[in-house]
Amino acid sequence: MTALRITVNSRAYGPLEVHDDLTLNDFLREYLGLTGTKFGCGAAQCLCCAVIVDDPDGTSHTSPSCAVSAASFNGKSIRTVEGHAKNGELSALQKAFIEHFAFQCGYCTPGFLNEALVLLERLARKPVARSELEKTIAEALDGHLCRCTGYVKYHEAVRDVILAEPGRYLLAKAAGELQ
Amino acid sequence: MRSRLHIAIMLALATMLLTALTARAVNNASDSLASPESFAAIDDPAARSAAMFIELGKVLTHPRCVNCHPAGDRPRQGEPGRLHQPPVERGPDGHGLAAMRCSNCHQEKNFDPARMPGHPHWQLAPHEMAWEGKSLAEICAQIKDRDRNGGRSLEDLVHHIGSDTLVGWAWAPGYGRHPAPGTQQEAGALVEAWVKTGAVCPN
Predict the structure, then answer these.
(1) Number of A:B CB contacts under 8 A?
(2) Is the pLDDT assigned to residue B9 strictly greater than 70?
(3) Is residue B99 in some structural domain?
(4) Which residue in A1, A34, A163, B178 has the most C-beta neighbors within 10 A?
(5) Domain, as residue range, for B130
(6) CB-based contacts of B168, cutoff 8 Å, min separation 6
(7) Ranges of residues in chain A whose predicted pLDDT is under 50
(8) What is the pLDDT of residues B17-34, one digit of tens each?
(9) Residues of A at the B interface (Cβ-Cβ below 8 Å)?
């Protein structure tokens, strides 16, 4: 058993006694009621369950929640799909996903949203040239499975959000070669 | 008629017993490692050294080791060494691509409920240390070459194989995976004896 302390979407939880074989996915869904994080393959293959992990150095990365223990996140800070909208307003990524009809059933969407947000945060720290953007988006979303709309719409939605703020996500040199 | 039936039953039982014993012997042979002392009967030190490396090869060519010493940019997994799913890649530092780092899934220790292996330094061996598809003689030449063994001396190899905890994972791979033969201590003893006898490679 572990007395788990964890911060989820800026809210601190715990200490909560959890079994060491409890997955993070079950913890989020069954203990905290945060059912936006989905359970898909259960083997870190589809990544619909991916959440954002905030690293102490200010960077972020995603982690599947189905194949990792909740106890291993003791003392850590994570974000789930419930943390995207602020004060009832959808984020730019969420709006872009809707505008592009990026999802149909929506089961994979939380994972894609979290992965795309991590990409935006990475690009804000370390912009890339416009010429590298397509490859960068493709590599970032790689591994997330979608069985409804395919992957193009997600890719286009993320690209639109980035190109809407080129000065934030792209190298200055690339500004002239936009679109 | 009755005695014929008796003989048939006895033959069947004997066959079953022999099969079981043979299978056990084969399993024991593949699951264990011979000690350096068991090679003492080989008088020629060079031949003894090469023989010990062949024994160590049972570890080096085991899926627990080769799967993370792949020839390409993707690790392999399972006993048959199928390509890793999800489709991860080596990345510039051997820890995966920017959005799919090894540590995203592989945490500090095995998580058996999800059959997820783990170690704090989970990563792919560098390109130059690829063993997949190579003969034992080729692996031996490679493992002695500082340019292709991570800059290690022979003494470093003894420590790496005998004590490194990431290498040690091969003997504690978690639920559903067959561990490497013998123990890490036995593998360390073999590599140490191989080095002391001249680190001779098999042909």
Answers:
(1) 61
(2) no
(3) yes
(4) A34
(5) 38-196
(6) B184
(7) 179
(8) 434 433 343 344 468 999
(9) 21, 23, 42-47, 61-64, 66-69, 72, 115, 118-119, 122, 139-143
Looking at residue A149, what is its pLDDT? 81
> Mind giving me the DSSP string for B165-185?
HHHHGGGS--TT-PPPSS-HH
The ipTM assigned to this model is 0.76
Residue A166: cis peptide before it, omega within 30 degrees of 0: no
Amino acid at A169: Y
SS3 A60: strand
Specify the pLDDT at position B12: 55
Judge whether B127 lies within some domain: yes
- Asked if residue A178 lies in contact with residue A118, where contact means CB atoms within 8 angstroms, the answer is no
Q: Is residue B186 part of a domain?
A: yes
Residue B33 within a domain: no
What's residue B85's pLDDT?
A: 87
| All domains of chain A in start order, with CATH | 2-82 (3.10.20.30), 92-177 (1.10.150.120)
